[in-house]
Structure of amidase:
Amino acid sequence: MADSWQDRAKQKREAILAAIPLEWRIKDLPSVEEKRDVTGDYISGFLSEKEVAITETDAEKIVEKTAKGEWKAEEVARAFCHRAALAHQLLNCLHEVFFDAAIESARALDAYFAEHGRPTGPLHGLPVSLKDQFHVKDVETTMGYVGWIGTFEGKTGTGKEKVHESEMVRELRSLGAVLYCKTSVPHTLMSGETMNNIIGYTFNPKNRNLTAGGSSGGEGALIGIRGSPVGFGTDIGGSIRIPAAFNGLYGIRPSTGRLPYEGMANSMDGQNTILSVVGPLAPTLGSLRLLVKAILSQQPWLHDPLVHEMPWRDSHEREITTLLNPEDPNSGAKLCFGVIATDGIVTPTPPIRRAIDIVVNALRSQGHEVVEWQPPSHRDILDQAFKTWEFDAGTDLKGAFALSGEPMLPQVSSFSTLEKQYSAAEIVAVNVRLRELKKHYMEYWNSTAKLSKTGRCVDAVIGPVAPWPAARPEKYAYYGYTTWVNALDYTSVVVPVTEVDKKIDVVDKDYQPMDERDRTCFESYDPEIYDGAHVSLQLVGRRLQEEKMLAIAEYVGKVVGR
Amino acid sequence: MADSWQDRAKQKREAILAAIPLEWRIKDLPSVEEKRDVTGDYISGFLSEKEVAITETDAEKIVEKTAKGEWKAEEVARAFCHRAALAHQLLNCLHEVFFDAAIESARALDAYFAEHGRPTGPLHGLPVSLKDQFHVKDVETTMGYVGWIGTFEGKTGTGKEKVHESEMVRELRSLGAVLYCKTSVPHTLMSGETMNNIIGYTFNPKNRNLTAGGSSGGEGALIGIRGSPVGFGTDIGGSIRIPAAFNGLYGIRPSTGRLPYEGMANSMDGQNTILSVVGPLAPTLGSLRLLVKAILSQQPWLHDPLVHEMPWRDSHEREITTLLNPEDPNSGAKLCFGVIATDGIVTPTPPIRRAIDIVVNALRSQGHEVVEWQPPSHRDILDQAFKTWEFDAGTDLKGAFALSGEPMLPQVSSFSTLEKQYSAAEIVAVNVRLRELKKHYMEYWNSTAKLSKTGRCVDAVIGPVAPWPAARPEKYAYYGYTTWVNALDYTSVVVPVTEVDKKIDVVDKDYQPMDERDRTCFESYDPEIYDGAHVSLQLVGRRLQEEKMLAIAEYVGKVVGR
């Protein structure tokens, strides 16, 4: 008799744990009450001094050291495997653990270095974590579905099981990266929290009362606790930016067609009104740039039919760095920022509003211009965007659950109530309307050249990623602050700004919620529960402006002291 | 009582003619039997020497002269208006005639030149014709539908009627172009022939037994007879390349996202599995380059949300021109071409096969490599591609016909028999399959680096545009030679090669057709009927390779003596 879904989930959950060496197990796991914040000193207590030094070094500096042979790939890999193993026990952030393969590939890199006296590539010996949509040889991809265990995307006998690799995995390997784990996702991928019937719930390392975010929540938690120096997530409605923001990380949502999604598992694959994109999350901006540049050096447009031939554009980056260089003769030239304090649909909570003030004041103090962003209605954009999630009436998602009989968790259960698929004519109507709205927004953005003192259009728009610093479990009720960016296919980079301080970020008792959803979001904020959580914002740029936005985000991070 | 659709069509047809000055009317229109070929001396007989000189000058040389003030914009505009007026009477190739507005804008350009001593832009005083999908101020867009007369895309009271301009129209004006007419299309746009209930049938000027092609057939006919130096068509399944090929013209089907389609009328707008693209047709390759470069200089990505920020890339062009420069020290470096003699579904007719031999022999004689192109199945690609035309079961098209009650002409009547729309899940399945097929084709193309002696991948693929040099009316039975390019979103440039010679291009009496469609195509070729027709081929390159493919097409045109 076939095992129940509960049994299969348990076996998988135990297999993940079993892949963690015994000497890396935590004997007495602390409760949330005992230990809300498990980052920093707490987790470092389980590591050697060298392991702490390695895992608290950012990707740029790691490859500096491995490229000179100062650090061996193997010791770097071991240190991150150890910290990732601890992270998973504290946070439930891993779906796949393949430390042995990682050590083996790290040794091969060390052997290459020993023989040739030079690194294999720009990511020589850099551990990179991957969201559990990437296919890696010898490793499963469950995407959190019990029914996908032991299959290739729910199918058996495809010949691809544990053999097929995603295009970006091939590129990362050839750049010298070391792959060692795949991170947790919410089943369906369609949630700002990360939970499934296999690993349970992924918690926020900085404040375990809260979610690590989703859908790249495992990445957020793992990198947040420095169990990975850099990792890749995906984003169709905020899924890179939400976990980046909730874990105090930088994260980029590139525009579609910039980085290769080819050969990855996905939800509702083939829905091409709003495409999911792939991008990195990391504790430093330089790490994002390193990864984006490295991937583009592989000419992904020759291997992914949806990627545009658009190499890394130094000139775009230089345009910003030159403007911002105080030693440049043109340094009178400044940037102009738009700011979204609220979208008028859901009011951001106090810590988010304070973060906006911090950024605005810091930029103004440097002589930059900040103007109110008054774009065409975000509500109109969101009305269309959210339809795309319902085009197939949940057919794809329901099919994945039906494979095992497991239930949809509450965060995504609304998909089970959808009944009628959109027809072709209904879909094209959404496509046409979205194109019109993109055009309106584009012309608004063009019009800001008249508004700004720089004579240029607004360079970047500062805005919330979500109404809260992070959501409380089962309380992620609004995606509007991220999804407008996907609908318009803009470039967005998340920048960490501050932390919740319960003494400052008090509830505004006089606030009158605009409607039920606004009330839900308002009421979910509690300074006691949120105290200490990361608070981050996003910087939104126009389509395909990755170089420019990375440069601006690095600068903004600097002026707010990150 | 409302007029019948017949009356409304007749009124519109007569209004088009009425916009042609009386002195430009042809008294005794010759029958096809009397005058098969109305190009060259025949049409020149109606024009002054100066008008002939102007209208037989290509776009590059026209703007050379207008930029120096050697020719006035007004005299250039008048000459092309005159020749276009003659063309329409012989071929039924115009939907909208706005010569007065053209003369007025030409005069404004001349006044600017007189005042400032320099041209307004790179297209100063260049007449440009437009397919009747472009919206131009003060001018209707019917797209061949009786029901669209007096409306904005079939709707009234939108406030856009005769006011709204397409983005490219705005750009052409600001570049200095003179707009003077809009050209005929088949109703629905979904045909390789051009016919509708307003203007009737658009004939091929070189051989009026044949179609001018479609759906940009009015452009093909008008430019073919030199009533326009350059014009813009659109292509979702061959609609730029077919009329370019049938009229002995160069024409480029760029990849999606290169040139701005924003604000144009379209069929089945919002179907975004395979997008229609816009591109120029002209008698010389240099004219295409001039227009593509000029449009890109306008940064269309700031005004069309679907255009990628990809300026004209000189380096891409230089890569080819350097390789082909005999004075270059590396001139041992040559190109490698793939050749598609047949797709195995429909066998090309004798003139097409001879054209392929001409090109292959010419290239080999210059030392280039030509290898057989053995790609993944085109049939699989086409099976998916043709589904996209039927996604909405003809809902959009039927709606346009229902506005007036006019009938679908036989070339497109199969749309009336469609009943069931595709569901969202069915559409995504097509999207996923097409992406897989693109990936396979991409990897095949990558693999040709091993095949070629150049060490590079195949630079361009030589292939037919259609099984025949041009189709006979109501005999356009196969779109496979063009549509695979749309499905893969490749760049393609049509190159004129030769003309049908009934003495050489005889029917192969021993040929055994593979199936009924192949038989239909085989039997539609008749050397007597086809004698003198243009024979052209396409050169297909990878996605977004416009600069490279224009450079290669120019070279191929040169070596075949065009």
Remarks:
- The first helix of chain B runs from residue 5 to 18.
- Chain B is about 40% helix and 10% strand.
- The longest strand of chain B covers residues 491-499.
